Amino acid sequence: MLVRPVRYAGYMPTVEQVRDVLATINDPELHRSIVDLGMVKEIDIAEPNVTVDLALTIPGCPLKSFFQEVLPAKITDAFPEITDVTVNLGSMTEEERKALVGDVRGESPSSFAQPDSRTTLIAVGSGKGGVGKSTVTVNLAASLAERGYSVGLLDADIWGFSASRMLGMDSQPTVVDERLIVPLDAYGLKMISMGNLVEDDRPVVMRGPMLHKILQSFLTDVLWDEPDYLIIDMPPGTGDISLSLSQFVPGCSIVLVTTPQQAAEKVAERAGHMAEKVGMKVAGVIENMAYMLCDNCDERTYPFGSGGGQELADVFSAPLLGQIPLDRPMMELAETGKPTVLSQPDSSSAMAFEEAADALVEKLPPRPKKRIRKPLPLITAPSAG
Ligand SMILES: Nc1ncnc2c1ncn2[C@@H]1O[C@H](COP(=O)(O)OP(=O)(O)OP(=O)(O)O)[C@@H](O)[C@H]1O
Ligand SMILES: [Mg+2]
Q: Would you say the pTM of this structure is higher than 0.85?
């Protein structure tokens, strides 16, 4: 919430008063006051001008024009006597940046492994490739965000990333420091994907330990700011990434995605057992491409058979969270970079995703927000006489 500063009419402000006004401006990426972040350097007042020296976190900061607009507006609005504001943009020194990273990290160590972490982590996996993990991930995440939850989406398919494409994000995240990466914002979701960190979709050759390190960095160096949910798109296969994930975040749950076929169900079952072996809990099952709806009536046909989803859910005594129809327009729309739940909210697949999101929230409700204890006001005894 923006607090409208008091207007100081009729006299020239002091440096401290200008600083107080600037303190109400948050860095749009780090969501903290620019004064607290140490970005405001010099403030010079020479009636009727104010000059502010602002140090940006990184030299090529994309927010230059934001600061050039917002700072003068705030100052002239608060102090009618000031008619001209000059903002000199510089950038932080290496040391200042390190101090800022330390401060921000100190406030919110994004270690989801902490016992008091309030984020519910949900991996979406299947074992088998191409059954719709990424489609399910983006649509579940978008449905949860639509419901007003804060949601992060981590694309753990580091080699075969697809979340960036599915969410139409081709920009690069701001990397303040290797320990402080600002996630991108896609339709209100915070997201990180290797697709936004490599150039031109060029293949990245990575060995197991490197994947492990990147996943760790995605979990700990990205400024997630404790969302209600972190949804993690898993790569196909049962192996390395689940193991790494379980090491970094032991409390992570998994949603298994399968198609109705026996072959897919059996692979997802192995993925589920593997996940349980490393300490993850199966939160539920989503059966994708479960049926086709006739164009002109409500009749369902089952091109891939039926029953795989329920069977899988029974194996893990977990709920069948949803059955998503095979929806040709959805496949075509996937290329437009907008999840179906947002681009075609009335379609049968979007409604099935919405129901699955509701079932997921019922199974894993968000954890309560931590209460910030405010210091009690000092009460001084009234002086006698
Ligand atoms: N219910 C559906 N109806 C129609 N097409 C779908 C459906 N679900 C997924 N698809 C399409 O199937 C393809 C594979 O989906 P997706 O990429 O989500 O699978 P995946 O399991 O993440 O694959 P990978 O294992 O390669 O990561 C995509 O082209 C996607 O648009
Ligand atoms: Mg995928």
A: yes
